[in-house]
Amino acid sequence: MSDYGPVQIRCPVLSVRRVDAYYAITVVAPQIAERFRAGQFVAVAVGGEASAMLLRRPFAVHDVKPDYGGTVEFLFSVRGPGTSWLSERRSRDLLDVVGPVGRPFPLPRDPVNCALVGGGSGGAPLFPLAHALRRRGCRVDFVLGGASADRVFSAITARRVAETATFTTDDGSFGVRGPVTAPLGRVIEESRSDVVYACGPMPMLRETGAVASRHGIPLQVAVEETMACGTGLCMSCVVPVVGEDGVTRMVRACIDGPVFRGERVRFDDVGTIPFDALGAPGWKARPEPGDGMADRAAG
Ligand SMILES: Cc1cc2nc3c(=O)[nH]c(=O)nc-3n(C[C@H](O)[C@H](O)[C@H](O)COP(=O)(O)OP(=O)(O)OC[C@H]3O[C@@H](n4cnc5c(N)ncnc54)[C@H](O)[C@@H]3O)c2cc1C
Ligand code: FES
Q1: 258-269 as b/e: b if 16+ CB within 10 A
Q2: Which residues sit opposite 244 in a β-bridge?
Q3: Ligand lying nearest the CA atom of residue 25
Q4: How far is Cα 52 from Cα 65, in angstroms, rounded to an integer?
Q5: How far apart are the C-alpha atoms of 205 and 288, rounded to whole Å?
Q6: Are 62 and 127 in contact (CB under 8 A)?
Q7: Looking at the domain that runs over 7-101, which CATH code has it been given?
Q8: Do 262 and 204 touch, CB atoms closer than 8 A?
Q9: 139: closest CA among 191, 187, 185, 183?
Q10: Is the peptide bond before 258 cis (omega within 30 degrees of 0)?
Q11: How far away, in angstroms, is 236 Cα from ligand 2 center?
Q12: Residue pLDDT, tens place only, 22-77
C-alpha cells in the first residue's frame, strides 16, 4: 500500500459536540490527518465489536488539525441506527476508522475565483477545500443552503474564510428562502467565478451543473451516493459517468469518486444503468448510423 492510501486505525475520540442540527466528532488520527486531501472521506465502523451493523458509515472530513499529532473532525446529523450510535460516543471512546478514502478535489494551478456550493451536510468537504484554495491565492465565495437555519453548515466559518457567503433555507428561517442553487448565478456573475465546486444531494448537484453550464464554467462535484463496502468491491455506489472517450461507464463513487467532473455525471440517469453504458445489455462498442443506437443517442 502506498504511503498515501487509506489506513484502518482505532482512534480515540477527543470530543463530541453539538453544532446546531449536527454532531461534530473529533478523533486523534495522525495517519489519516497527514494523508488527507480536501474531498476525501472517512468510513467509520458503528455499533461496537459485537454489532450486527456490518457496514461502515461514510462521512466527509470537515477539518484536520495538527493538535495531538493530527486530529480529524467529521460532522453528521442523526439519520438511523449508525449515526444514532455515533452521537452517543464520548471522549476517550475508541472508533474504528478507515481513511482517507476516495479521490480529492483537483486544485487549480493558478489563483482563480471559485464558487463553493453546499447543500446541508454537503457543506462539510467544502471547508478544507476553501482553506486549500485560499493557500493557493484563489478567491472563494460560499453558497450554503439547508432545510432550516440549524442545517446550514458552519455559517460563521464560511463568512470568515470566504470573500462572500450567501445562505439559503427552504423555510426562509435564515438567508434567502429557496434552494441553494437560486442565488448561484448571481454569485458567479458578481464574483466572476472561474469554477464551481459543489457537494450535496443529486438533484442539487444536477441543478448546480445546469447553472454552471449556463455560465460556461466547469464544475467539480462530490457525490454522497449511498455506499455499502466503501472499498470498491460491492458496486452498490455506482454512478453513470461519461469518460474522455465519450463512453459511459458505471463508476464507483467510493474509490473512483466521490469527486467527479460535474459535466461528466449523467445526473438524469443516476440510479439506473443507461442502455449505452459500457457492459449494459444494449451496449455496443461503436454505434453505427442506422443501427438504431446512434439514433437513440442523438435523440
Ligand atoms: C461520501 C459520503 C460522505 C458523506 N458525508 C456526510 C457528512 O459529512 N455528514 C452527514 O451527516 N452525512 C454524510 N453522509 C451520509 C451518511 O453516510 C449517512 O447519513 C449515514 O451513513 C447514515 O447511517 P445510519 O446508520 O445512521 O442510517 P441508515 O439506516 O443507513 O440510513 C438512514 C436513512 O438515511 C438514508 N441515507 C443513508 N446514506 C445516505 C446518503 N449517502 N445519502 C442520502 N441518504 C442516505 C437512508 O436511505 C435512510 O433513509 C455521507 C455519505 C457519503 C456517501
Ligand atoms: S460502496 Fe462498495 S463499491 Fe463503492
Answers
A1: bbbebebbbbeb
A2: none
A3: 1
A4: 33
A5: 33
A6: yes
A7: 2.40.30.10
A8: no
A9: 191
A10: yes
A11: 5
A12: 999 999 999 999 999 999 999 999 998 888 888 999 999 999 998 888 999 999 99
- Ligand in nearest proximity to the CA of 24: 1
pTM of full prediction above 0.70: yes
Cα-based angle 269, 236, 239 (whole degrees, multiple of 5): 30
Report CA(63)–ligand 2 centroid distance (Å): 24
In the chain, where the domains are located: 7-101, 113-269
Task: Kindly indicate whether the domain formed by 113-269 is annotated with CATH number 3.40.50.300.
Answer: no
Q: Which residues line ligand 2 (CB under 6 A)?
A: 227-230, 232-237, 252, 254
Write out the E strands in the chain: 7-19, 22-28, 41-44, 57-60, 63-65, 71-76, 94-101, 113-119, 139-146, 164-169, 176-177, 195-200, 219-223, 238-242, 248-252, 259-261
- Alpha helix (H) ranges present in 137-182? 155-161
